[in-house]
Amino acid sequence: MAPGRIRAKIKRSSLYTFGCIRPHVDSPDEPHQFRGPGFSRHVCCNQPQLHQKKPLKYCKNYISTTKYNVVTFLPKALFEQFRRVANVYFLFAAFLSLTPVSPFSAYSMIAPLAFVIGLSMAKEAVENWHRFMQDMKVNMRKVRVHNGEGTFSLKPWMNIRVGDVIKVEKDQFFPADLLLLSSSYEDGICYVETMNLDGETNLKVKRSLETTLSLDDDSTFKDFRGTVKCEDPNPNLYTFVGNLEYKRQVYPLDPSQILLRDSKLRNTSHVYGVVIFSGHDSKVMQNATKSPSKRSTIEKQMDKIIYVLFTLLVLISLISSTGFAIKTKTQMPSWWYMQAPDDEGLYDPKNAALSGFYHLITALILYGYLIPISLYVSIELVKVLQALFINNDLNMYDEETGTPAQARTSNLNEELGMVDTILSDKTGTLTCNQMDFLKCSIAGMPYGVRSSEVEMAAANQMAMDLEGHDDHFTRSRGQNGSEIELEAARVSKESLGIPIKGFSFEDNRLMNGNWAREANPEVLQLFFRVLALCHTAIPEFNEETDGYSYEAESPDEGAFLVAAREFGFEFCRRTQSSIFVRERNLSSQEFVEREFKLLNLLDFTSKRKRMSVIIQDETGQILLLCKGADSIIFDRLSKNGRMFEEATTKHLNDYGEAGLRTLALAYKVLEESEYISWNEEFIKAKTSIGGDREAMLEQVSDMMEKDLILVGATAVEDKLQQGVPQCIDKLAQAGLKIWVLTGDKMETAINIGFSCSLLRQGMKQICISMNVDMLNQNSKKHAVNYYFVTDQVVKENIKMQLTNAIQMIKLEKDPHAAYALIIDGKTLTYALEEDLKHQFLDLAVGCASVICCRVSPKQKAMVTRLVKEGTGKTTLAIGDGANDVGMIQEADIGVGISGVEGMQAVMASDFAIAQFRFLERLLVVHGHWCYKRIAQMICYFFYKNIAFGLTLFYFEAFTGFSGQSVYDDWYMLLFNVVLTSLPVIALGVFEQDVSSEICLQFPALYQQGPRNLFFDWYRIFGWMGNGLYCSLIVFFLNIIIFYDQAFRAGGQTADMTVVGTAMFTCVIYVVNCQIALTMSHFTWIQHFLIGFSIIAWYVFLILYGMMPPELSGNAYKIFVEALAPAPIFWLSILLVTVACNLPYLAHISFQRSFNPMDHHVIQEIKYYKKDIEDRHMWTRESSKARQETKIGFSARVDAKIRHLKQMLQKKSSVLSPRVATPRT
Amino acid sequence: MMNSNPSTPMNAHAPSSSSGGAGSPDSNAPRRNSKRPKYSRFTQQELPACKPILTPKWVISAFMLVTIVFIPIGLTSLLASRDVVEIIDRYDNACVQGSKSQKVQHIQSQTTNKTCVRSLTVTKRMKQPIYVYYQLDNFYQNHRRYVKSRSDNQLRNLGDENDTSSCKPENDANGMSIVPCGLVAWSLFNDTYSFSTSNNSQLAINKRHISWKSDRDEKFGSDVFPKNFQNSSFIGGGRLNESLPLNEQEDLIVWMRTAALPTFRKLYGKIEVDIEAGETINVVLENRYNTYSFSGKKKLVLSTTSWLGGKNNFIGIAYLAVGGLCFLLATTFTIIYLVKPRHLGDPNYLSWNRNPGGH
């Protein structure tokens, strides 16, 4: 040990609670005895060079998450492309185009396919490259590695090998799975944050072996040698089995010596460790699961359409090949000019069946234009651009953390517009996991004037609603309660000053020592002492701020300490036996440091729901200070300790309603003798060895914590992320259901439920839980068949609870009644079983809000799957931690909260946003747009290809079904790729039915997505019908016009090229005008692209015609010489274009005038600027534009509003009867 | 993917939450800003856009506009079409009598006299130029086998004489390439017509420039002469004058432009004198082309043209129909808007106002 080094003196590890009191049973651990498979790893510590050769060569610390590398890219990416059935078809067609069966030349089949596949593969390559760069960023991170000479140098992560000794400094991530050798603390402990692994925010203690403690300096590693034999790489995060051979002795290793990759060193200045598992062997990488590739509902439906089209394709192919066979058999022999049969048997009247079969293949290729080859690639392109918009949205950029939103996959953009249920994690998603001391009630007096976020939000909403309802109401300002509340909220917001983390309390009566002038200063002092003493935290002096900050087990404890500090009770030091507090003297107002002897500490457990300390102050008085859940504390009050009970209960209810977390504080004065006798028992209990120890300890503690005297209560705000209540409110108005799945305990979850307005007063809470008492009784009575009986009984019990609750909901008459389902993890295990889950789902669907607490990550995923599969609706899971990964992967859409440190959720997610509140914009704006865009785009795609493809079929019928195409190969080649694809891409990228502000103002518009109004079969078939109609019009009008007559004054008649070109020109016009009618939002880009498509066709036609006839064939000078001077050509274009688009125009006009959809009306309002002329109508409508919802603070305010309105209505009806119009 | 990127740059979060948040955010500021999306109207989807909506005014004006444009066009087209005088004479059955097999025998025989005389009455004055067409029916010039059976290169270039692979089976005869090869050329139409008026004055037929100029100039070589044509055992249609280059064989050029439909007309020539109404035209024709095998009709057509081309009532009618339909729609919409007006942008039509509470 290096002498003279300043070290953390406290052995924190043994400070806390029962742990420190517990006798250290030093049962000398036997080294693990393991042989055989699964335990073959052999690590030579500090000799990484030994691991360069087999058999000890382990994988490098280089990680790669890329899909392809240089070699595998081509085959793998190609394989991916041809997993799409349409692409296989086109590939097949391309092969066949090399044979004489093909109706087209080979290049016209292969070129578009190559283009489309090439584009998709280019996209894959770019994505892969990004992934590679991301990997490299991690791989290139530097860490200090021992270089064999007793010194450490920085090396990139990827160069770390098994056996390397590594020095990790504070707040750095571990680059690989390490064996902890020593830390900057004397006792070799270190604190680790495992948020990336399991989402838990509390720090975990890791402890090195005693024997390696001496390796605490860089130079000591020069001669360090050791061997670790351990298990093979596996994904289990919480187990580790291995032995360390060091100095000829074998020491067993367990998980507490293992530092896992991607966890972070906290509160410890540095640690030394040996790399055991590197790179992909590390536990976190072993845990990596391939995220399931998700496909959006629309895409799945699109597949069905493709199948429909394939059926149609096969059908018309069969028709045409039958027709061909018949024609060939019966008429071909008489067509002497054909000289049938030919050599290849393609036109053999004697063998018409075979010829018919050949023709079937021809036909299948010929009508391939029914299936849009460029559909996939266009959709992909559009989605990438849409994702770009999401990534670049400044309204989803978090200034604080500097994180923009990120669409990690672009597959699901449109799915964002169809979400029905949101499953949300709590900590880190809804809340910041930061507690703010907000209010308190001491001696029956409420303190703290700042309103909670919920109250503020509600007040805001209330004022807004009233404003919107009628200005008569707002004019009568004086009487309007909410106005005043709002003012108060505003004032308090302004007076913020410099915010102190964890402390938002505001009340001059207590601040700056003013409390001494209050009515009961002794009680107040006691209250503050409880705050300052009853905890397990450790102070840390921060030189920069010249003050203390606290490292506490839970954030509310931290908040208490900060509060105590601000009140003048600064907890500044703790030793094993004492707590030092700098206190403001009651009389002199001066600060003195007081020592309180810590006699006992009775720990907090979720079962006890309280913690106590027994302290002795400087005067020798022994006190028990206790804090705990109000119900528990109130049960334990002495008769004379209930002075403030009534007032405090009232305050606690208020706090609860305001969404605050409450605890009651109490104390008790102990006589020395009383304490001594109790302490004996306590010591006896804690030194006892055996299974009953816990129970005994609990019992003894129980004895002590009674006859308490109530001091007061605290209200801590579990700080919600910014804008969460508003966002939830909006989402609820958009008709989304929100479920909260949290690992937290029930009380916390309920509190958050209140603060997010998922719960409110007057909502009926259905708590499904296991009856613990019954369980215990059972277990005692039937000790033998414990498991069997309890399982059965519990299940029956839960089933009954579920059935009752469902019954209750069914029988409910009041339309405003709302139910909330609260269920905990243990119960959920039963409720998720096969036979109960549907009942559970029924119940959950019937409830306005659902809160699942204490759920494991796996259960989160299971619940998600249940909702997804049970309701068949689209689910979205949002979370921030690794514990949400399962849920995020299971849901139709997974959203990760980025910006916080845990990236696991983000990595698994499809979309990453920095704050929960961005979800609103992501869904209501981007989701809505993307859904409509993609839906319209796909419909249009099918339309245009049907309109075009069927003309080929009709024409073929006129050629004796011979498979001749009327169009030049080049026309068709360009049709999908250039001439019609750009406007539809513009539609998919830029279309906006209403602007983003309106989307947000009218959340009800969102419902168009979940109800799938724009991609139902009615609409799809409507579009297909339109395509059919257009194909008929295009073909037959042209055919009749160019039938046999001269089409020019010069007497020339039309040949096939003329007819084909005219017809094709009509198709181009028709589909491009159609898309112009479809769009409602024209930027210059749309104008340009539609114009471009049509002009490009002419340009192509002219250029193609100018090429020498070797290339252009019959199209040589077709436009310049033959068509352009013919008036009938232009007349036919005009006629056909108008005739084709007429029904659609009439249809949408009728729709609009008789059955306008919401966005139509809103467009009109905007168009006529009515929103500016009539602001009241606008605000009224936007406040009405919401789904009936029972959650969110709007719903919460509703009841109040109703009440208020009734009052006002009475009043105003007296003043002026005109106002008293009935309102909902 | 459960990637192991624990976080993007670590220093962004370096000030640990426990240290009171007194880190050094300033040093991170530039890096943070670098992630901030750049503002542009494009990326924020705020490009200026026109958002036309279908107001009744627009709808009715659109339909009326179509009406106003279409009806005159329709009328003009009909007028133009009415000016065209067209005489159609089907002669295949008139020239050969008997059963189908007899007809086929007759037409295939080398010896029979195939001359046939028809007389056409002109009902209306025909102004020159009068175009002479032959019209075939049930002849699949658009059949894939037929269409493909030609060699454009051979027609154009002297050097590509042997480029006949696409011409099978009419690619060579007696071991030599056929020029022009292929079924299309081989089945060249070979009926001929000569016209005289009732006073026995011959009506000259101008057969020059009945084909597209580009065909003559670029697609059919001036140095390519017919060779070995119709020399195989099975003779299809017409023969060619072997002393004329292909680009002067305009009948062939016209024939090689395959028609789109099984019924088609092709230009035979022009009569460049006016013919008065009431006059009778005597046609002496050589009825050589075999359409009897497949029961195809043969017609002789004399027609003048207007600016619109030949006699084509359809386009006029179609224009009138669409125009009329639009007028009907415009009226319907007008009536609808008058009878049951929907105040545009009337919030009462919003779904939440139409069925309150009933979502």
Automatic annotation (TrEMBL), chain A:
<feature type="transmembrane region" description="Helical">
    <location>
        <begin position="357"/>
        <end position="379"/>
    </location>
</feature>
<protein>
    <recommendedName>
        <fullName>Phospholipid-transporting ATPase</fullName>
        <ecNumber>7.6.2.1</ecNumber>
    </recommendedName>
</protein>
<dbReference type="GO" id="GO:0005886">
    <property type="term" value="C:plasma membrane"/>
</dbReference>
<feature type="binding site">
    <location>
        <position position="883"/>
    </location>
    <ligand>
        <name>ATP</name>
    </ligand>
</feature>
<comment type="similarity">
    <text>Belongs to the cation transport ATPase (P-type) (TC 3.A.3) family. Type IV subfamily.</text>
</comment>
<feature type="transmembrane region" description="Helical">
    <location>
        <begin position="1020"/>
        <end position="1043"/>
    </location>
</feature>
<keyword id="KW-0479">Metal-binding</keyword>
<feature type="binding site">
    <location>
        <position position="884"/>
    </location>
    <ligand>
        <name>ATP</name>
    </ligand>
</feature>
<feature type="transmembrane region" description="Helical">
    <location>
        <begin position="107"/>
        <end position="126"/>
    </location>
</feature>
<feature type="transmembrane region" description="Helical">
    <location>
        <begin position="1089"/>
        <end position="1107"/>
    </location>
</feature>
<feature type="binding site">
    <location>
        <position position="744"/>
    </location>
    <ligand>
        <name>ATP</name>
    </ligand>
</feature>
<dbReference type="GO" id="GO:0140326">
    <property type="term" value="F:ATPase-coupled intramembrane lipid transporter activity"/>
</dbReference>
<dbReference type="GO" id="GO:0045332">
    <property type="term" value="P:phospholipid translocation"/>
</dbReference>
<keyword id="KW-1278">Translocase</keyword>
<dbReference type="InterPro" id="IPR023298">
    <property type="entry name" value="ATPase_P-typ_TM_dom_sf"/>
</dbReference>
<dbReference type="Pfam" id="PF16209">
    <property type="entry name" value="PhoLip_ATPase_N"/>
</dbReference>
<feature type="binding site">
    <location>
        <position position="627"/>
    </location>
    <ligand>
        <name>ATP</name>
    </ligand>
</feature>
<keyword id="KW-0460">Magnesium</keyword>
<dbReference type="Pfam" id="PF13246">
    <property type="entry name" value="Cation_ATPase"/>
</dbReference>
<feature type="binding site">
    <location>
        <position position="426"/>
    </location>
    <ligand>
        <name>ATP</name>
    </ligand>
</feature>
<keyword id="KW-0812">Transmembrane</keyword>
<keyword id="KW-0547">Nucleotide-binding</keyword>
Automatic annotation (TrEMBL), chain B:
<keyword id="KW-1133">Transmembrane helix</keyword>
<keyword id="KW-0812">Transmembrane</keyword>
<protein>
    <recommendedName>
        <fullName>ALA-interacting subunit</fullName>
    </recommendedName>
</protein>
<feature type="compositionally biased region" description="Low complexity">
    <location>
        <begin position="14"/>
        <end position="30"/>
    </location>
</feature>
<keyword id="KW-0472">Membrane</keyword>
<feature type="region of interest" description="Disordered">
    <location>
        <begin position="151"/>
        <end position="171"/>
    </location>
</feature>
<feature type="transmembrane region" description="Helical">
    <location>
        <begin position="58"/>
        <end position="80"/>
    </location>
</feature>
<dbReference type="GO" id="GO:0005783">
    <property type="term" value="C:endoplasmic reticulum"/>
</dbReference>
<feature type="region of interest" description="Disordered">
    <location>
        <begin position="1"/>
        <end position="42"/>
    </location>
</feature>
<feature type="transmembrane region" description="Helical">
    <location>
        <begin position="317"/>
        <end position="339"/>
    </location>
</feature>
<dbReference type="InterPro" id="IPR005045">
    <property type="entry name" value="CDC50/LEM3_fam"/>
</dbReference>
<feature type="compositionally biased region" description="Polar residues">
    <location>
        <begin position="1"/>
        <end position="10"/>
    </location>
</feature>
<comment type="similarity">
    <text>Belongs to the CDC50/LEM3 family.</text>
</comment>
<dbReference type="GO" id="GO:0005886">
    <property type="term" value="C:plasma membrane"/>
</dbReference>
<dbReference type="Pfam" id="PF03381">
    <property type="entry name" value="CDC50"/>
</dbReference>
<dbReference type="GO" id="GO:0005794">
    <property type="term" value="C:Golgi apparatus"/>
</dbReference>
